[in-house]
Amino acid sequence: MRLGVILFLTAAGLSAAVQFVPTDKIQPPIPTREFRGAWIATVNNIDWPSKPGLSTADQKKELRELINHAATLKLNCVIFQVRPACDALYPSAHEPWSEYLTGKMGKAPKPFYDPLTFALSEAHKRGLELHAWFNPYRARYKGAKGRASPNHVSRTKQAIVKSYNGFRWLDPAEPEARAQSLKVILDVLRRYDVDGIHIDDYFYPYPDAKQTAFPDDASWKRYRGKLGRKDWRRMHINNFIRDLHTEIHKV
To answer: CA end-to-end span of the chain, whole Å?
Structure first.
């Protein structure tokens, strides 16, 4: 399987230890083709489905129309958000069905279908790549309305989930949080013929209006190294990307 990995990094994802090469020394690769992609965002029903709780037939119709439109525009890729907030837009043994699909977290579509399999089929029929888009550390979106299902990480692993600015987040400094996100991404790579994966830039959250500190005091106090807190946070993101890169080559 040919697989591309695209990472969208905030400044927090750049290591203080990186050695930058002068631009006049860089020889960029010769491009073989253009990458012309469009996002299909599922969080808060931004793009699809237009609202939670649509019938299976209507969900398929809307998704097919979005992919059709991408093909009409002569794009060559669609980037489908399959994990907006530690939930799933596909059947998963590790995380619950997304509330943005059916209106209730943990509830499967009925009649049953697999949106990721459907999106892959529709994209490939039209000569488009289908990339799976993951949010690695966001655990609950600010606009979430329903109660988290019993198997959601915010209820099963409360110690590694933090509240900040109305959202809930996995703490990137917690090894169990990194392991959860890696497990989810690798599960998709093993079960689906996706053409690439995308990692969103929500690692540590952006500061709120009051510049309140992210509540990771517990994990910070366990650290016994020499890094400052900002570089310590960057280290955890770098370690996640390193581990993901390593594990992808084993799939």
So the answer is: 9
CB 130 within 8 A of CB 197: no
Closest by CA to 106, choosing from 93, 119, 118, is 93
For the stretch 217-242, pLDDT in tens is: 999 999 999 999 999 999 999 999 99
For residue 200, name the pLDDT band (cuts at 50, 70, 90).
confident
On whether the CB atoms of residues 196 and 131 are closer than 8 A, the answer is yes
pLDDT at 20 over 70: no
Q: Which residues contact 235 (CB under 8 A, 6 or more apart)?
A: 15, 227
Note the pTM of the prediction, 2 decimals: 0.86
Residue 6 has pLDDT above 60, yes or no: no
Spatial separation of the C-alpha atoms in residues 203 and 1, rounded to whole Å: 27
The phi and psi torsions of 111 (rounded to 5 degrees) equal -55, 145
3-state secondary structure of 134: strand
In terms of DSSP bridges, do strands 77-83 and 196-199 run parallel, antiparallel, or are they unpaired? unpaired
| Distance (Å) of CA 152 to CA 22, 63, 97, 133, 213 | 46, 26, 9, 19, 25
Dist. CA 41–CA 188, nearest whole Å: 18
Q: Is the pLDDT of residue 15 over 60?
A: no
Task: Please check whether residue 119 is in contact with residue 80, taking contact to mean a CB–CB distance below 8 angstroms.
Answer: yes
Rg (CA), the chain: 19
Which of 151, 161, 178, 136 minimizes the C-alpha distance to 218? 161
Structure-token match 């019938």, residue found: 55
